[in-house]
Amino acid sequence: MDIIRGIIGIVSLLGLAFVFSNSKKNINWKLVGIGIGIQFILAIFILKADVLAGFWAPLGWPMILFQKVASFFVVVLNYTTEGASFIFGRLGHGPEHEDSLGVFFAFQVLPTIVFFASLTAILYHYGILQFIVRMVSKGMQKLLGTSGAETLSVVSNIFVGQTEAPLVVEPFIKKMTKSELFVVMTGGMATIAGGVMAAYVAMLGAPFAEANGLEIQVAQQLFAERLLGASLMAAPAALVIAKILFPEDGEPVTKGDVSMNVEKTDANGIDAAASGAGTGLQLALNVGAMLLAFIALLAMFNGILGWGSDITGITGLLGESLTIEMMLGWVFAPIAWLIGVPWSDAVNMGSLLGTKIVLNEFVAYLKLAEGVSAAQLSPKTIAMATFALCGFANFSSIAIQIGGIGGLAPSRKSELAKFGIKAVFAGTLANLMTATFAGMLF
């Protein structure tokens, strides 16, 4: 039944993209079919490799490699604790430590962003990340037939953010076709940066471990695998959805291939680590400030809605005060059910999806962590939500991309603004597609 519902969900998402396509006759259905196949294969190796290994042991090897990579994020969290405890003392110790004072977001989660940004800068300085991106993008380009520039940008988004990834193709942005530019935007919307991925592992691991009686490292490993899998699957998903919504009708300059040249701005590894830490600190402060403001605003609007629902008698009809999350849940519940979420969880899942789009994925993951802690969601829904929220597709990202990508190619700013809403839609569909595969194989 899960597989049938999953197929219906995938077809429905593709149908939505087709309806809003700006050139239905130019859609490359071969690319779409291969892209979906890549996602399905990745989903099987990520979620069902143990079953495959039962038939033939080597089929389990990709999963072993994947688990090793995912465990890297757990190790990062452990090392971050060392640095955080040096600065903040016991406040930096999470629930896994006997002397922990409790969960403190500012002292336990935000430092993860700083350390991971520093580590990423070192890997970039020595060309390690570039090598991985180049290998993955070449394989995907050969399979899908996409241009070198758009493929490089999308694959880079697996590891870095939506403003950093376009830097690898900066010389080509001015000459990109409209379809390529839309792919660059969609790739940024459909993925998350490595630094915040580690933060989400920390956010979700602790409540899941407590709710299910697991060691926190086991729970963190589980979410690291899911989030990494979601990011990997989002790359082909972004290309598929983008090429349906905005098919290629021009001649890309980098149709054959493109070299990846990223200028080194740091003198050595130590300089890279320092500058990366500075960048990470800025990001962590921005995240903290954004969460403080958004959650406070959400509480204020909920207070106003609650007052209104009390005096109008709506509270009596509902049995509780009206909230923004409740309204978003009603709006997005049908979509949640369509992709395979049990109807009993559809409103809660819909609320998470709406929160991600209207506010951002960080607030949505915080709400998911609260739902996990309160045992409000089934294991399948938790898994699907982890995939569905794993992307920057929200309204504020439009401004971020106009500023970031537009800064690299000022002549394309008007097009970036024009494509903004559609890129959020495309990124959301890509995330929902990866979640559908996760639910199908759960």
Structure description:
Belongs to the concentrative nucleoside transporter (CNT) (TC 2.A.41) family. Residues 227-439 form the Concentrative nucleoside transporter C-terminal domain. Helix content is 74%, strand content 0%. With 442 residues, the protein is mostly helical. It has one domain (2-440). It starts with a helix and ends with a helix.
Features:
mainly alpha; 74% helix; 0% strand
| SSE run | HHHHHHHHHHHHHHHHHHHH
Catalogue the unreliable spans: none
Number of distinct helices: 20
Determine the fraction of residues in helical runs and give it as a percent range. Answer: over 70%
Q: Which structural class should the secondary elements be placed in?
A: mainly alpha
Indicate the proportion of strand residues.
under 5%
* Shape type: globular
CA gyration radius, whole angstroms: 21 Å
Total domain count: 1
Distance between the termini: 12 Å
Average pLDDT reading? 91
* Main sheet characteristics: none
Q: How many DSSP-defined strands?
A: 0
